[in-house]
Design brief:
Blueprint: H1 24-29, E1 33-39, E2 43-46, H2 48-54, H3 64-70, E3 75-82, E4 85-91, E5 100-103, H4 104-107, H5 113-131, E6 142-145, E7 150-153, E8 159-160, E9 165-173, E10 179-184, E11 195-198, H6 205-217, E12 225-232, E13 237-245, E14 260-266, H7 268-277, H8 288-297
Parallel strand pairs: 1-4, 9-13
Antiparallel strand pairs: 1-2, 2-5, 3-4, 6-7, 7-8, 9-11, 10-14, 12-13
Length: 311
Amino acid sequence: MSLDLPLVRGHVDPAVALRDSVAPAALVRAGEADVIVVDAAGFVLLDEAGARRTDTPVLRRLRGDEAARGLEGATASFIGVAGGRSVVAIETSRDEVRGHWEHLRAVGWCLDGDDAALALTALALAGWHANYRYCPRCGAQVQLVSGGWAARCETCDRLEYPRQDPAIIVLVQDHDGRVLLAHNALWQPGFVSIIAGYVEAGESPDVTVAREVAEEVGVDIETPTYVATQPWPFGRSQMMGYRARTLEEHPTPQADGVEIEWARFYSREELTRALESGEISAPGRASIAYALLREWYGADLPSGPEGAGRK
């Protein structure tokens, strides 16, 4: 991997061999696990005291009676081992646990490596648990097993595992090195990013890259180059990052008018002016889109008048 991806860091051991033998709730009640807390909507509970000590966001760890109380009415999952300790994630609502909650989009890039990895996995599982409640074969309820890493149908015994949908994201440059940015119709005004889309059935990612760029902005590209992959739990995606150059020297993007409202090429100087003036805002720093743009730009992207930028 040749790209600095903020969420793909740390040294968390997934301890796959332990999943079938551990009971997350029992680990918590016995005080044998560190406990982190997440909301399936993408939020993590932070330790305000820890952040003050380190000037860096820190995941809050529940212990003792507080951890045991957190189990009430919540789903607990075994995440792995970090720093020699088992880690269990409790999935709850922000209304149920008071404290400092932040979305992983906003803080993921500045968490410690282990915390970033733990939060990423915990939220990926929490999102799956929240949406996968019934068997797709017979419609009966499912029961979580393997420490939260599988779901078994109570009626037909079908076993399912968490899924990630393959998706591509591509930084396109013209022959002058200008970068292609687009505004999606569903985004807040002025927010832009690079082209992305899901891989269709029977399609290779390289083909998806060319198809998405052609469909969304009417630009043909040369053979794309794979860069790196980042899991992205906000849509259960596995984001495969690419670079590509336009086939024509200086094509004019033609937005499809449905998904994409407008698109244009920016030089580094033009992007600097547009970001600093607040004319546009860039992807959040936890995303692979930001990482690809940062590498192209050669430094952190400039902030707008109020540090604007989509989280």
